[in-house]
User: What shape does this take?
Amino acid sequence: MPELLALWLSLRPFARDRGLSSENSYNPLSLRRNAALTMSFDLFFIAFVLGLVEGLTEFLPISSTGHLILAGSLLGYTEGSSKTFYVVIQLGAIFAVCWEYRQRLWNLCTTLPRAQASQKLALNLFIALLPAIVLGAFLHSFLTAHLFAPIPVACALIAGGFIILLAEQRYKSRPETVRIQSLDDIGWRDALKVGFAQAVAMIPGTSRSGATIIGGMLFGFSRVAATEFSFLLAIPTMFAASFYSLYKDGQILSSGDLASFLSVGFVTAFISAFFCVRWLLRYISHHDFVPFAWYRLGFGLLILVTSSTGVIVW
Assistant: This one.
């Protein structure tokens, strides 16, 4: 948060020089200092920051979309193409997971025709993907139109923080409820439950990884099994979301500036997500998710307080 605030403050003179203000959001793709340049340093900076935010938050239970909306608001990037940009750079983060799990994915693909365990895992991932596909087809337009804003994000952050605290308390006080220790123990009903939990994460600020990991823990998954299943489920889910967004709004890619903008965000998201995924896999082997719950609660309250008092115009 201090870093984002510093970035916002540093960009205030930049906005004023162009007659812009937080009340009148601007389109950074229209800012061209030199027509001969494909993309200005200003655009590069915004794409880099948003790619970094995406990569560092995508697989933590703190909501990458929520943080992107907040960061985009502070940076002034709130126009129509922002929603497509946020979805597309998620591909950079998901390629980082593909790389981290490349051996497992290769084994899954090569043994799928003959290995029952691989077939079961693939079927479970497909079942878990269905709720998001079905509900997303009906709710996508409504959610992006009404909930992609800082205040709904803050409320979702706070609600998610309380749920994480409750889930961790139950996990520690009732260890007998943990019945799924590995991916091989997951049944189709378990996968479907996690799928519905993931669908809840269509609400920005909820966190897809948070919903699936914490949901899995509430449904009897061990912390490690829930995290691994969440990471693998992210691959088809985020590919589907990205390609759906490109299908609906792909015409905006005809802009050369936007193509460069997406490329910088994509690469930055990939690199930062790669290191974040490796860190998280080590972290969960010895720690719980309680710190992330307190972060969500604190950050969500900070947004509400600063917004209501006018200290920061999100």
Q: What stands out?
A: Confidence is low (pLDDT under 50) at residues 1-38.
